[in-house]
Amino acid sequence: MRNKLAQKIKxxxxxxxxxxxxxxAQTSNQIYTPTPENIxxxxxxxxxxxxxxxxxxxxxMTAQGEWYMNTHNINRNEYAKLASxxxxxxxxxxEWVSAIKTSGAKYICITSRHHDSFSxxxxxxxxxxxxxxxxxxxxxxxxxxxxxxxxxxxxxxYYSHLDWFRDDYPEGNxxxxxxxxxxxxxxxxxxKFMNKQLTELLTNYGPVGAxxxxxxxxxxxxxxxxxxxxxxxxxxxxxxxxxGNNHHRTPYAGEDFQxxxxxxxxxxxxxxxxxxxxxELPLETCETMNGMWGYRIEDQNYKSPKELIHYLVKAAGxxxxxxxxxxxQPAHPIxxxxxxxxx
Length: 343
Hints:
CATH architecture: Alpha-Beta Barrel
Domain Glycoside hydrolase family 29 N-terminal: 26-336
EC number: 3.2.1.51
Distance between the termini: 6 Å
Strand order of the largest sheet: 5-4-3-2-1-8-7-6
Structural class: alpha/beta
CATH class: Alpha Beta
Shape: globular
Function: Alpha-L-fucosidase is responsible for hydrolyzing the alpha-1,6-linked fucose joined to the reducing-end N-acetylglucosamine of the carbohydrate moieties of glycoproteins.
Signal peptide: 1-25
Order of helices and strands: HHEHHHEHEHEHEEEHE
Helix content: 25-40%
Radius of gyration: 19 Å
Family: Belongs to the glycosyl hydrolase 29 family.
């Protein structure tokens, strides 16, 4: 790192890496028995206390955040053209992992596929991916996975349950203006697609620390996501891979850690955690350095190093990890705000 924030976070993380195991009880009536490998992975995750979140994709090229396709009702065919110009020339997996590790972070979570449907990895299930649809032609996740293994840092994959691009994703609360036909949706097809992509991620990229799901809130609460079968598939492929879901609800059976979006456990300042009780699973809170997850050029309202360190302390005080977000620019590794991490 070439700024003072990295040094301060490194110091704070070193002071805060405290042990804290729990019974990891489930809050669902369904039966789920984690394997010994999974229990060990939970304990290690519980003790990490600090990780880095990377929201990065072709939406970074718009400099308007990861929700640009939805908030501006961009037709999916026009949006797809962004891929033809995505060429992150300054990406260097070894430099990224080394810099993040130096900050004191114990793991990295990166968006493998966000709500826009673009896959940041070489998938056979869709041509809309970084290898087939961009001039870059390199598998970002593969390079990160190999470097993480070399440097001894865990790699987690964010994966969206919802999709604003595909016809087979059932119509939800978002993505209405992206040009899909009215009444679109074929759940059986979409569910199969997701599980095939998850199989790729858990087969072709070495040990995966966790799958970080997001998007269930797009459908009614009674929508059957068939999570039990999906979670079982993940645990079968990699028993030690943890599962977390940003559904803003008390954890379901099959989930291995509980996350809180923009809030510390037990608080609801952001409005996402109403009714979400604190389970006995390992805990994680995710937060941004400024106001956005994906890169947005207007958002230069970065939190001060003092604020970020205090948040890390407060999270650790509640026995939770802090997953702090960085929104990389399309060609440059990360935002260049005064208080952002710079590689």
